[in-house]
Amino acid sequence: MLNQKKDTQLINKERIPTLKFSKKDVLQDPDAKSRRYYAANRATILSNTFRTKSMITFKTETGEKKRVEAALWGLDKDFVLLKSGMFLPLRSILEINYC
To answer: Does the pLDDT value for residue 11 go beyond 50?
Structure first.
């Protein structure tokens, strides 16, 4: 995935519930969606096994790019669950990097 750090704002994970997300997926390519799911699954395994965090780059409903550093605790087909009980829609995630 592309490195999205240049034009993104780093936020605290506690701000996620105050954000709105689009109903449309930010990725259009099926291969990119597959890679995103794989990265989310891997980040979840690493977080639960080694207590590591990941840097997640995502887009809000208004198109703003934001980043959050957090441990992923769970994953399903629609959402990732972050450590403090925050849910982030998988469709809004652009990139996941392991810290």
So the answer is: yes
Question: According to DSSP H, which parts of 3-99 are helical?
Answer: 30-50
Across 8-29, b (16+ Cβ under 10 Å) vs e yields: beeeebeebeebebeeebbbee
Q: What is the pTM of this model?
A: 0.91
Give the Cα separation of 42 and 58 in Å (integer). 17
- In 3D space, the residue among 11, 26, 15, 14 whose CA is nearest the CA of residue 62 turns out to be 26
Helices (H), 1-99: 30-50
- Alpha carbon 68 to its chain centroid, in Å, reads 8
